[in-house]
Structures are given as C-alpha cells and as structure tokens.
Specification:
This protein is mainly alpha-helical. Among the domains are: about 1-105, no CATH class; about 175-235, no CATH class. Helix content is about 75%, strand content about 0%. It is built from 13 helices and 2 strands; from the N terminus they run βααβααααααααααα. It has helices spanning about 10-25, 30-45, 50-65, 80-105, 110-120, 125-140, 150-155, 160-175, 180-190, 195-200, 200-210, 215, 220-235, and strands spanning about 5-10, 45. Strands 1-2 form a two-stranded parallel sheet. Helix 4 (about 80-105) runs antiparallel to helix 5 and helix 7 (about 150-155) packs antiparallel against helix 8 (about 160-175).
Length: about 240
C-alpha cells in the first residue's frame, strides 16, 4: 500500500467537507458532493471517516443511476449506457471501501457497504459474508449498530423464513425507535405482499416520515407515501 504524503486536512476544510457530505446525502446530489470531496482529496490526506463518506457518495450515485436506490427488490430496467455509468461508481466505491479495510479490517461501515455492493452484483453469498461480519462486530459496540439489511439479502436468495427472522432480529438489535429498522421491516412485508403485517408498522413509519421530512427529502417521501397507500388498500380490500 502506498504511503499518503499529502498534508492532513485542516479543521476548516474538514468542516466544509462535512457540510458537503450532509447536503449531498440530504438532497441526493451525490455527483456534486463527489466532485467537491475529490478536490479536497487531491490536496489533503483523508482519514477513514472521510474516505467512507466519499465511498458512500459513489455507491449512492451508482444506485441512483441504476434505479436501485430505495427500490429494494422492485424491478428496474436501465439502458446499457446507464449500466456502465453505474458500474464505474460502484467500482470506485468498492476500491475506497477496500482501502479502508486494508488499514482496519474491522471497520463495520466499510464491511457493510462492501456487502451491499456484492448484493447489487447478485453475489449474495459474498454479501452475506461481509454483512454478518459487520453484524458480529457491531453487536459489541452500540455506536456501530447500523441497518445491515441481512434479511433483504436472504430474501433475494429465496430464503423467506431466514429473511423474516433477520428482519425481526435487526429491529430488536437496532431498537424499535430506529428509523431505518422501521422502514426496512415495513418494506420487507410490502415486498413479500404480507400487507396486513406491513400495515402494523405504518403509524411508526408515518411518524418518522413527518419528523424527518427535511432529512429524508421529497423524492423519498413520495416513494414511501406511495407504498403506504398501497399497503392500506391491500390490507383492507
């Protein structure tokens, strides 16, 4: 591994970088965030936290282009050109996460995102391997408990019972007030068309969508509202 001889990032630039990351994730303006962070990276040495954020923007941009962002299992068709663009962003994200793991093999966040990238490439066994490792490490450190979506990986493998077990396990693991856990469990039952079970989580999800309107963004709000309406309709035909 090459030694990074660039100077450490100054506090004022780090603060600017944090704002760039926050705005890019909030507004789904990943390309803008990537371009700005790459300008900083040419001048300054990035630590694992900043590198992870940059990798996250790359993989989110790939998901946005490929139509897989927030789609979780719903069918999406894209052109060959879009596919190639998405692959570039996924490849760059993977390289960044691997770079982090070379220095710190127990970085929960990098392990999790590697799992996501393998899953997007339909390499589910590899995805599970990375996600389970992240889960085991996160279990020991409450500050590193993140939504691992292990249940969704099993669902894509056709293992519905194992998938449901993990969805419920992660809800308990992350806590019943956790935003991602509630969104994920409602989405899981929505995807397997168990609308009555999905409807049980609507009050909590609606509360989350309302309280985090600015953070979640209009596009995502609209997508979830559409899902909720379908669940209500199908749960009470």
């Amino acid at each position: 591994m090459s030694i990074d001889l660039k100077k450490p990032i100054p506090p004022n630039i780090r603060k600017k970088a944090s704002l760039v990351i926050s705005h890019a994730l909030r507004d789904m303006s990943y390309k803008i965030g990537i371009n700005q962070l790459e300008k900083y990276r040419k001048l300054y040495s990035f630590d694992d936290k900043l590198l992870y954020a940059l990798g996250l923007l790359y993989d989110h941009k790939g998901m946005q282009i490929s139509g897989q962002f927030y789609s979780q299992g719903e069918s999406v068709k894209i052109s060959i050109k879009q596919k190639k663009k998405a692959e570039y962003y996924f490849k760059t994200a993977r390289e960044i996460f691997y770079d982090i793991l070379k220095r710190n093999p127990k970085n929960v966040y990098a392990l999790f995102r590697c799992g996501i990238l393998f899953e997007l490439n339909e390499q589910y066994r590899k995805a599970i391997k990375f996600k389970l490792k992240a889960y085991r490490i996160g279990m020991k450190d409450k500050s590193k408990r993140i939504p691992l979506l292990i249940g969704f990986t099993y669902l894509k493998m056709g293992e519905k019972k194992e998938a449901e077990k993990w969805i419920q396990k992660e809800l308990k693991f992350l806590g019943e007030e956790n935003t991602s856990a509630n969104l994920n469990i409602l989405l899981f039952y929505f995807l397997i068309k168990e609308y009555k079970k999905a409807s049980l989580y609507i009050p909590q999800v609606e509360k989350i969508l309302k309280s985090q309107r600015k953070t979640i963004g209009k596009k995502v709000q609209k997508l979830w509202q559409k899902r909720i309406q379908k669940i209500k309709k199908m749960a009470n035909p």
